[in-house]
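Reader question, answered in our methods column.
A reader sent in the components of a multi-part assembly and asked whether the whole thing could be modeled at once rather than chain by chain. We filled in our standard form and ran it. Here is what they sent:
COMPLEX SIZE: two components
ENTRIES:
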Amino acid sequence: MEYREQYDRYVSAVEETIERLLPQTERECPDVDGMIPAHLCKTMRYSLLAGGKRVRPVLLLAACDMLGGDIEQAKVPAAALEMIHTYSLIHDDLPGMDDDDYRRGRLTNHKVYGVGHAILAGDGLLNYAYECLLQNAMGHEENLKGHVLAAKAIAGRAGVSGMIAGQSLDLLSEHMPPDLNRLAYIHAHKTADLLTAPLLAAGCIAGADDAQFKALSKFGMCVGLAFQIDDDLLDVEGDAQLMGKRTGMDAQRGKMTWPALMGVEASRAKSRALWSEAEASLSCFGERAWFMHAFAGQLRERKN
Amino acid sequence: MEYREQYDRYVSAVEETIERLLPQTERECPDVDGMIPAHLCKTMRYSLLAGGKRVRPVLLLAACDMLGGDIEQAKVPAAALEMIHTYSLIHDDLPGMDDDDYRRGRLTNHKVYGVGHAILAGDGLLNYAYECLLQNAMGHEENLKGHVLAAKAIAGRAGVSGMIAGQSLDLLSEHMPPDLNRLAYIHAHKTADLLTAPLLAAGCIAGADDAQFKALSKFGMCVGLAFQIDDDLLDVEGDAQLMGKRTGMDAQRGKMTWPALMGVEASRAKSRALWSEAEASLSCFGERAWFMHAFAGQLRERKN
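And here is the structure of the entire assembly that came back:
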């Protein structure tokens, strides 16, 4: 099967699952237990259905396929991961964080619904992700331990020693001198951890062995870091005509970048090395890794 | 054993567990996997260790004891529930929500650390609650299903058809005419659900039967609603000397209250009926419910 076709099939599976887990409700004070009030539901759906590329859930489904796991068991965890990614974007956009008015060409959640409701939409998506993960685990009691481990892997990578740790350091960094160690920490946790989470979760559901977990973890980390370095390089190349020398901070965004801290050439070399390492880490999966190879290639070319 | 002595023992168990799960770290970019960055850790601890009465975790431990369950298995879920309660307070205090500068006589989290870090402290506590619940579940594999059901019960009551649903309606209500159905919904979900959560979680861990679950649920809901009605009555009695007639909204806070919507006498009668119903729901537990009876009595007298 062609890569694009397969990617679209994964995306369809994710969209269907999201729609099943979070359909628009109608009543503000539902009298049915477990029903979500209409407005809260709307605020969550606004951002969750904002047309992202579904990179993280696709990674989860693809890794599950690669490992020979049961894709049916992986659909809810994939959707839950997209909920977690979406909540982090809603909260990142808030005043006091990045304070953004637009995301992907649409007004941010708090610009449409107000700050209070945006905070709750984010909280709601985060909590609902775990509610869905736990519900799904109970629906697959034959693989309960695998699902608990998957949820735990997601919680670890999304949480206070994962993505949230990266966000916290990123925010703190605004008042600190640039530092390469810190930049690496921020990118490893703010970005790469949430790309590794779906791979590890798939491993837990499909019963991967230690060598496979190690390879999945390596692939996620390398792809995540390489993507971030390329992002910084693209920014620099875009800014190069406009600006002169740099000082370790990206002048436009007030943030540290790889090229500013280690130079453009060294950044390019590091990116190349990481993409190669990502590809190499897939060797233990043989031909079953065809989609992952193509995925990494597309991500590198920014075609996903 | 005396009630107060037992209460203090439960609180000590909760405090020790919190300290074990979330000790203050020292490094901003920890090189150890799973370590929380120092500043993020500090912001989470600031609110988690702000000296609350630990009502919800105490309920969880007490219910576990009442059901003859293993208290060791319940300590982490109890601490996780306090994390969830604390995150909800941090986010409730933010600008865009209640915008409060003080809570329990101390500056609110965002007044000390800024809005961005307070949002992350809240997100961190919520996510870490589930991380701890899942870690704890894996540590008790002999009762894995019980722990997954406990985490699911907590997620359900804390989430988008539970506490967050109540918060959302509460916020939305500011722009709506007063309505008794909506007020009941808000209090049932914003307050009572997070009192019911520990009781149901304890039931899952201790393997309660259907009748016991029904009784626990009833007790939590009655106590939560009665407490809220009394809260509104105390507000009215405090305001009575200052103000004249009321219009369905609490003039001071711009929020709906029970006495304003159904009258003072009817509110008092409803409160009395709910406290009685709460007591009656404990009958199936016999003498093992001595602490729960005392707990309800103390809560009613506001002595916890």
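What stands out: The mean pLDDT of chain A is 94. The two ends of chain A are 17 Å apart (CA to CA).
Send us your own complexes using the same form.
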